[in-house]
Write a structure and sequence with these properties.
By secondary structure, the protein is of the alpha+beta class. The chain has a single domain, classed as Cytochrome p450 (Orthogonal Bundle). Helix content is 52%, strand content 9%. It has 17 helices and 10 strands. The strands form 3 sheets. Strands 1-2-8-5-3 form a 5-stranded mixed β-sheet, with helices on one face. Strands 4-10-9 form a 3-stranded antiparallel β-sheet. It has a two-stranded antiparallel ribbon with strand order 6-7. Helix 13 crosses helix 15 and helix 15 packs across helix 17. The termini are far apart.
């Protein structure tokens, strides 16, 4: 049975394109329209089903009939001879914890959490403050600068380098892996060039990690690589390839995601004088503030799944093998769930219901690290500087996953 033979006349509903500059800048308006007209909508442009309402998004993430194993999404439309050149991409993206199902997911996630727990974050919390202060010194020296390159490209990668206990020379390589991975795996339009670049980046990063993994096996430290090498759940441990894949994933989540979030949240705070004043008057509100801003405007717009069998959802027949676009960006502004969803309310009572990090077994392992970095940066930056945004229009990153700016011109003036 084809998933295209829907009971609702979906052909009458206006389609969306995730690569459209208007959608990149404002995904919420078309998603609100879909929530009303076709909450389970087959998009011809995207070649899959768009799920936009909060309840449906939560249900989809909990539905074991939907598979997170979605490596084939990267290779759609790519010729076989190209795919033969992308063996590193196929292997290591298939082993990422957020692309596993069932027992494999549970086993790898448990082992990761043994290594990447609150204790690991606590070890770098003081270092995060030091890094923030050093970056703010550079912001003061420059005065006017591109926030994305001076702050976004530096803060999260320096923290990840410290977590891994890698020499400083590897910091640019960490950000390159994150950028290449995101450019390909999250691209609104995937190209052969992006995939080839990603394959080479993965191979280069593996050479680095494979240098340090044997060292940490013999002489473990209190770093994250040592924790991963020695993580055990009974007789279970990560294979070398599984470990490499999770290290890739941590670099991407720890660098690229946080970089986008820093920039978009900075703009929201500067544009909201009442929010800025509250942060300065009561820095303890910063955790709730960054959590609320992770809801809207947020950073992660969407994740994908494949239907592992035929499924009925709200009267629509989703066929086995159909691709599904599960929209965090729609769920987080669904007025059925959140009062005044476009208002920044840091006292919002249902923060635990946000879809910012994904629910269930695929909930982001590094969510506390990301929030710790955001809190440290904003509390220290706004205590020390008045910040101006020096542009009215923003060129958005061409990603179906991330909401973010390509660049952000700012002025930091000491208070």
């Amino acid at each position: 049975m084809s998933g295209r033979s829907a009971t609702q006349k979906l052909d009458e509903v206006e389609d969306v394109s995730f690569a459209d500059p208007a959608f990149l800048a404002d995904p919420w308006t078309p998603l609100i329209r879909l929530q009303e007209e076709a909450p389970i909508f087959y998009s011809k442009n995207q070649g899959g089903w768009i799920i936009s309402r909060y309840d449906d998004v939560r249900a989809a993430f909990a539905d074991r009939r939907l598979s997170a194993s979605r490596v084939e999404q990267l290779f759609r439309g790519m010729p076989p001879e190209l795919q033969e050149q992308l063996k590193a991409v196929r292997l290591y993206t298939s082993l990422l914890v957020n692309r596993l199902d069932g027992r494999d997911l549970t086993r790898v996630r448990v082992l990761m959490l043994k290594a990447f727990d609150r204790g690991a974050i606590a070890k770098v919390e003081g270092f995060i403050n030091e890094v923030v202060d050093e970056i703010l010194d550079e912001c003061e020296r420059l005065g006017e600068f591109d926030f994305s390159s001076v702050v976004g490209a530096v803060l999260p990668t320096r923290v990840m380098r410290r977590l891994f206990d890698l020499p400083e020379e590897y910091q640019p390589l960490l950000f390159k892996l994150a950028s290449d991975f995101t450019a390909a795996s999250a691209a609104a339009t995937v190209t052969p060039e992006l995939l080839l670049q990603l394959d080479q980046s993965i191979r280069t990063m593996n050479e680095v990690f494979n240098t340090f993994i044997p060292e940490r096996e013999k002489n473990p430290g209190d770093d994250l690589i040592s924790g991963m090498v020695h993580a055990r759940d009974g007789l279970n441990k990560l294979t070398n390839d599984e470990m490499l894949a999770q290290l890739h994933g941590m670099v991407v989540a720890g660098a690229e995601t946080t970089a986008h979030t820093l920039a978009t949240q900075l703009v929201r705070i500067v544009d909201n004088p009442a929010l800025l004043q509250r942060l300065r008057d009561d820095p303890s509100c910063a955790f709730n503030m960054v959590t609320e801003l992770l809801r809207y405007p947020g950073t992660v717009k969407c994740m994908t799944r494949y239907a592992a069998e035929d499924i009925e959802m709200r009267g629509q027949t989703i066929a086995k093998g159909d691709l599904m676009w599960i929209m965090h960006a729609g769920a987080n502004i669904d007025a059925r769930m959140f009062d005044d969803p476009f208002v920044t309310d840091i006292d919002r009572p249902n923060q635990r219901d946000f879809m910012s990090f994904g629910p269930g077994l695929h909930f982001c392992v590094g969510h506390m690290l990301a929030r710790t970095e955001l809190v440290a940066f904003f509390t220290r930056a706004f205590a020390r500087f008045d910040v101006e945004i020096l542009q009215d229009d923003f060129e958005m990153v061409p990603s179906y996953i991330f909401y973010g700016y390509k660049s952000l011109r700012v002025r930091f003036t000491p208070r």
